[in-house]
């Protein structure tokens, strides 16, 4: 699908199979929305940083009352477009219009707040302030020159009630759930008068039930006249909550279409420029391991703050999935195995040798490599180069006294760039200048640097694009073929398809086990604690 042939699609092309999207808006309101002026338009918008084009003549229209998805691979131009739509950057070419009128001057921040707001993946809520203080920060009601606290709390309560957001106005924001903080940010945006809200990866830190509640609230707000631009790497969510979608690729607008007119395979094709869906090896096609294959990882009665009595084994050449809701304890178990978190009780054995609890150097020495959950805070030093990050765990083997010569580090960095397909000018390039998918490949490189016997991957494809996801998951197959054990800890179904077995955690315990070839609905039901086969 080319940019030249897919500017704006109205109806499904002949022979396509429509995909069911959620029926958020009734037919009558949809017809009315089409007749109205777009809430926002980017018309031929271009942006350039030096010799690099971040956007090339991008056009997008978002209609009133809809949820409009913005998707594309990392580096496609989504973040630049959002910064232009929110008035943080001025386009070099083209213009932005709200309800048919030109956007206000960049310097007029109040005018921008009245038109648009963005709820970012990393919250802008100030955790040590109350909900009321966050809602009215820098515009608190005053009485005789001082803040009128009673009026602020009253106004906050009225605002929360109006938008049906069930949190206390005097609650400390840091004590709220991620879901509640997002809703407070939405309420703050609406209080300025904005009815166009950009949601940047809103479900990245939410579990299944929280996502359902957020989507319900989005649907209700749409009915009250709020319009959303929804940015997500989870394509299934696009079909669940959005009515329209725009795809960017290589800084260009590729297609805008009704979601129902763009099946998943064609959506991925538009994002990648290649035909076919996600190419992930399905473990169901693998031959079983030979009898008597040695155990690489043995977890016995592991107990921590949010999990109890967890036991399982992973054999050499086996890939095991560990899944469950965000609150199931799966991440804590994985971090305990990698030495990042100290369990209260239980044992972890690697090739029969007991692993000291909560000891990262010991875990590395015993042959455990780990891709942690949060690449920015646990996986990378953003100011350092690809080579420095990738070789961090093997500095002692590259040079005396743990000081590796730059030439050796760069040589190792070049090998990892080639092995993992990291897109970068060279090994001395800082990781802060890489896309999210390439940053995650650097984290993977660091985990592989020690030639681990057990590889622990925690949410390995979170926040990366389709092609980066394929590249990262292909490493699992490669490591498995080398006879190493892999533990994939994730809530992403695509991550789990590469697993020989999937263990499901529910409320801190292993509740079910699925062999390769499982059905999506069975696994999802187990994660949610629902039995589909009760008599």
Automatic annotation (TrEMBL):
Gene3D superfamilies: P-loop containing nucleotide triphosphate hydrolases
SMART domains linked: AAA
Record-annotated membrane-spanning stretches: none
Region annotation Disordered: where it falls in the sequence: 1-20
SUPFAM superfamilies in the cross-refs: P-loop containing nucleoside triphosphate hydrolases
Keyword field contains Repeat: yes
PROSITE patterns in UniProt: ABC_TRANSPORTER_1, ABC_TRANSPORTER_2
Keyword annotations: ATP-binding, Cell inner membrane, Cell membrane, Membrane, Nucleotide-binding, Repeat, Sugar transport, Transport
Domain ABC transporter per the UniProt entry, residue ranges: 40-275, 278-532
UniProt keyword Membrane, yes or no: yes
InterPro entries: AAA+_ATPase (IPR003593), ABC_carbohydrate_import_ATPase (IPR050107), ABC_transporter-like_ATP-bd (IPR003439), ABC_transporter-like_CS (IPR017871), P-loop_NTPase (IPR027417)
A GO molecular-function descriptor: ATP hydrolysis activity
Protein name: Ribose import ATP-binding protein RbsA
Organism the protein comes from: Paraburkholderia solisilvae
Gene behind the chain: rbsA_5
């Amino acid at each position: 699908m080319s940019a030249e042939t897919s500017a704006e699609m109205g109806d499904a092309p002949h022979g396509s199979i429509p995909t069911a999207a959620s029926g958020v808006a009734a037919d009558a309101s949809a017809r009315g929305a089409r007749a109205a002026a777009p809430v926002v338009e980017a018309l031929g918008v271009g942006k350039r940083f030096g010799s690099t084009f971040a956007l090339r003549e991008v056009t997008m229209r978002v209609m009133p009352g809809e949820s409009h998805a913005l998707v594309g691979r990392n580096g496609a131009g989504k973040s630049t477009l959002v910064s232009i739509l929110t008035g943080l950057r001025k386009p070099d070419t083209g213009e932005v219009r709200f309800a048919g009128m030109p956007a206000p001057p960049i310097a007029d921040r109040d005018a921008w707040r009245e038109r648009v707001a963005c709820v970012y993946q990393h919250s802008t809520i100030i955790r040590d302030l109350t909900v009321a203080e966050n809602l009215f920060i820098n515009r608190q009601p005053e009485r005789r020159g001082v803040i009128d606290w009673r009026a602020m709390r009253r106004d906050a309560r009225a605002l929360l009630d109006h938008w049906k957001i069930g949190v206390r106005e005097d609650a400390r924001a840091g004590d709220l759930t991620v879901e509640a903080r997002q809703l407070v940010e939405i309420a703050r945006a609406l209080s300025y008068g904005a009815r166009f809200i950009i949601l940047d990866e809103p479900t990245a830190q939410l579990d299944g039930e929280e996502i359902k509640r957020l989507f319900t609230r989005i649907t209700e707000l749409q009915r009250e006249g709020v319009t959303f631009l929804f940015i997500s790497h989870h394509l299934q969510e696009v079909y669940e909550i959005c009515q329209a979608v725009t795809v960017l690729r290589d800084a260009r607008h590729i297609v805008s279409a009704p979601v129902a007119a763009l099946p998943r395979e064609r959506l991925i094709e538009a994002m990648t420029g290649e035909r076919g869906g996600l190419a992930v090896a399905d473990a169901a096609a693998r031959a079983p391991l030979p009898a008597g294959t040695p155990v690489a990882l043995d977890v016995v009665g592991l107990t921590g703050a949010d999990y109890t009595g967890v036991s399982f084994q992973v054999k050499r050449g086996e890939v095991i999935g560990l899944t469950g809701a965000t609150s199931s304890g799966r991440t804590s178990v994985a971090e305990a195995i990698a030495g990042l978190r100290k369990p209260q009780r239980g044992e972890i054995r690697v090739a029969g040798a007991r692993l000291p609890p909560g000891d990262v150097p010991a875990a590395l020495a015993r042959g455990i490599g780990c891709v942690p959950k949060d690449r920015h805070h646990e996986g990378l030093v953003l100011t350092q180069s690809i080579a420095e990050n990738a070789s961090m765990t093997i500095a002692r083997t590259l040079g005396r006294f743990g000081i590796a010569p730059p030439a050796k580090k760069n040589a190792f960095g070049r090998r990892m760039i080639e092995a993992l397909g990291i897109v970068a000018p060279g090994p001395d390039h800082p990781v802060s200048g890489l896309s999210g998918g390439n940053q995650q490949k650097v984290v993977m490189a660091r985990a592989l640097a020690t030639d681990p016997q057990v590889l622990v991957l925690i949410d390995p494809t979170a926040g990366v694009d389709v092609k980066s996801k394929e590249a990262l998951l292909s490493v699992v197959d490669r490591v498995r073929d080398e006879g190493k054990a892999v533990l994939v800890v994730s809530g992403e179904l695509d991550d789990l398809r590469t697993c020989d077995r999937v263990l499901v955690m529910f409320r801190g315990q292993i509740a079910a086990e699925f062999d390769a070839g499982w059905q999506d609905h069975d696994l999802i039901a187990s994660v949610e604690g629902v039995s589909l086969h009760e008599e």
